[in-house]
Amino acid sequence: MLVLIRSFGQEGDKILYSDSADKSSREMIDKYLSTTDSAEFKISELLILAKADEQRKDYINVIKKLEIALVLEGYVHKPDSVTFELNNMMGQVLADANPKYSIEFLKKAVQISSTATDIPMRKKFPVTGRIAGLYAQINEPDSALTYYKMAETEARSTNNANIAEASTQNNIGFFYSNIGKNDSALKYFNLSLQTLNGPKYDTVLFCSINDNIAQLFEKKNDYATAIKTYRFNDRFYLSVHRENRYFINKVRLINALDKTGNPEAGVQINAAMNFRDSNFTKIKLPEQLKFYKLAADYYFRNGMTSKAVYFNSNYFTINDSIEKQKSETLNSLTNALINIQRFGFKSEIEKHKLELERTKTALFNNRIIILTIIIAGIVIIYLLIQMMKKRKIANETEKLFAEEQLKRKELEARAMQTEIELKKKDLTNVVLHNTQVYDVNKKMIDRLENILKEEDHFDRAIRSLLIDLKNNISMSDGEITIQNNIDHVNAKFYEKLKLKFPNLTKSEVELCAYISINLSNKDIANLKNIEAASIKMGKNRLRKKLGINPDDDIYEFVRNI
Predict the structure, then answer these.
(1) How many Cβ atoms sit within 10 Å of the Cβ of residue 453?
(2) What pTM did the predictor assign?
């Protein structure tokens, strides 16, 4: 694991590594820390030199230069395209040796790109996609898919948005294919083709997407469709002079033909061999390795031993070469990481002094930490005690409040019960009063009819009738007083009713009041001196206005208003 030692002081930055460094490394760090050029300029120069070392596969010097550039990054006032390129390159160089460590540098590059204004989206979105690929490589599919989706969104903001977005969608499809979600993979491959809108924008990408679809059809044992796609790509790659891609596609075509038992597989092997001989330098060794393995297996199965031995021998020769190259590359990277940790720019005496200072600092820090823990513990205990006291007071307050609320609700319930009883009593009096008025009026009518028949005592009968009428007026005044009492008691009910149902008529409001105290149709009819059937019809109209279903209890509904 590469361990960076950062210090942002002028002197501290000269302690770049933890042990003594070789002379060239010391001279290099002294050079870049002593010049008056800007940190950005120095980093740019180191990146150019590191890329040249990378071409020569000199990974030790690549990482040395990048490490010095990372120290210089501490002098950059504001992250920009230079620091973006630095972290991006560091992430790429370390991808094979340590994918997780590589991801950290690439994430930092993405973070820089989100704040720096001089980094175009066409440079940012491939880094996001690279992070997604590394997460897929270390078997973290959720993180991989998150970054693939981010890359897809970023691709839409590039200059060639359709190509960038189609490329990212193709990568997502390939990711789904690798984890066995073939339906999702096919969905994204088709979406990628739709986004690209034909081969005219990017022939290689177009064929690559089709190639991935063909491999998906192979997984579903639909070799006919796969072979058709491989033949299509075969012509396309050759027409645009993409020799390595053509050879990859040719190997896949041979494999599909061989699995279906098609005798054309042998013809295509010869064609591929001839193409390989005439384009040897343009075809990468891993692709040649796959071809030799495929050809050797084919000839062994078909009893052509001499050809099988020839291709098998070539396979092992190339495989050894590739493994040796991989081993050398990984060894170089590993050695580079180890050496970077060992290198330093102080003498052994200075190193011991530094170690002593570190020990003293560590002891002091430990004392501070212990004291801090003790103080923190005391503070926490004090706060817990205070919190418990506050909680106790709060509980007691809540208990008292709950008791007060309960008492208030009991008083309200009693007052409501008393109010209902008064309503019933007053309404009963009104009903009785109306009955008396009715009887009195009936008697008046009978007496008037008798007066008309009498002639001798006409004046006396008229005077007696006037006295009775005055008494009847007094009875009506009593009725008005009782009705006013009812209206006063129902004042709050009327307010709620009018607020919820403003379209009710005066008679409908009155009917609701009678219903609220549980009067029957007969009682309401006697009270209003009308037929009970009219009350029933009035209730039906009232149900519609209140929105009550025929099966619902109108008395319960009105009481709950």
Answers:
(1) 6
(2) 0.52
What does residue 46 show for φ and ψ, rounded to 5 degrees? Answer: -65, -35
Q: Hey, what are 326's tokens?
A: 């991989």
Q: Using one digit for the tens of pLDDT, what is the confidence trace for 146-180?
A: 999 999 998 888 888 889 999 999 999 999 999 98
* Helix, strand, coil tally for the chain in percent (to 5): 80, 0, 20
3-class DSSP assignment, residue 98: coil
Between the alpha carbon of residue 529 and those of residues 173, 222, 227, 508, 521, the distances in Å are: 84, 91, 97, 16, 12
Diameter over CA atoms, the chain:
159
Give the CATH class of 490-561.
mainly alpha
Provide the sign of the torsion angle of the four alpha carbons 496, 502, 506, 508, taken in this order. Answer: negative
> Positive or negative, the Cα torsion across 230, 234, 235, 236?
positive
Q: Which residues in the chain land under pLDDT 50?
A: 1-21, 340-354, 474-479, 482
Nearest CA among 199, 285, 207 for reference residue 245:
207
Backbone angles phi, psi at 130, to 5 degrees: -65, -40
Q: Please compute, for residue 200, the number of CA atoms within 13 A of its CA located in the half-sphere on the CB side.
A: 2
Asked if 481 contacts 436 with a C-beta cutoff of 8 angstroms, the reply is no
CB 237 within 8 A of CB 279: no
Give residues with Cβ within 8 angstroms of 337, minimum separation 6. Answer: 1, 2, 63, 97, 98
Q: What contacts 378, CB < 8 A, 6 or more positions away?
A: none
Query: Which two tokens mark 352?
Result: 């011991």
Contact 238, 267 (CB under 8 A): no
Phi, psi of 345 (to 5 degrees): -125, 25
Cα separation of 262 and 228, whole Å? 13
Phi/psi at 329 (5° precision): -65, -50
Give CA separation, 459 vs 441, 450, 451, 455, 464, in Å. Answer: 20, 13, 9, 9, 9
**By C-alpha distance, which of 200, 143, 118 is closest to 166?**
200
Query: SS3 string of 56-81?
Result: CCCHHHHHHHHHHHHHHHHHCCCCCH
Q: Where are the domains of the chain?
A: 490-561
**Are 192 and 170 a contacting pair, CB within 8 Å?**
yes
CB 88, CB 50: distance < 8 Å: no
Q: Residues in the chain, how many?
A: 561
Q: What is the pLDDT of residue 4?
A: 37
What CA–CA distance (Å, rounded) separates 198 from 66? Answer: 41
Distance CA 267, CA 304 (A): 14
pLDDT at 192: 93
Helix ranges, 21-140 (H):
23-34, 39-55, 59-72, 81-93, 99-115, 121-137
